[in-house]
Design goal:
Number of strands: 5
Distance between the termini: 42 Å
Strand order of the largest sheet: 1-2-3
Number of helices: 5
Order of helices and strands: EEEHHEHHEH
Helix content: 25-40%
Strand content: 15-25%
Structural class: alpha+beta
Length: 150
Amino acid sequence: MARLAFDTPVGVLCVTETDGAITALSWGEAGVDETPLLIRARDQIRAYFAGARTRFDLPLCVAGSDLQRAVCDAMSAIPFGDTRTYGDIARDLGVPAQAIGQACGGNPIPVIIPCHRVLGANGLGGFSGAGGVETKVALLRHEGAAGLLI
């Protein structure tokens, strides 16, 4: 397991690589490994925050249940600047919205897998990354989706 930490507008992010795939993204943790994949992930995240990238092109490996992986796939399909609700994804996958909320909260690779693009039916919903909902709002504003919040 290799890890690389770097500064971003939403705090220090640390990306983890295991067996040639990105397996985690967390806030405020240390990591100094500079594998080609971790450098590529860092560069893509920096380009995202610079406004030069709207999609990530990285090998990902999501640990967890089939539902966790399905929800992560559904979140990854939400285009930059768009949002969906927990209920939208629940209907698509045929499960309760609460299960979608739990899977979003368990997303091991936030930002790259854009759980911030999933909202509650009547509000923002939660965000498990550092800063909580404030970070979710910052990411949505960065993507131009903040009009939904006003």
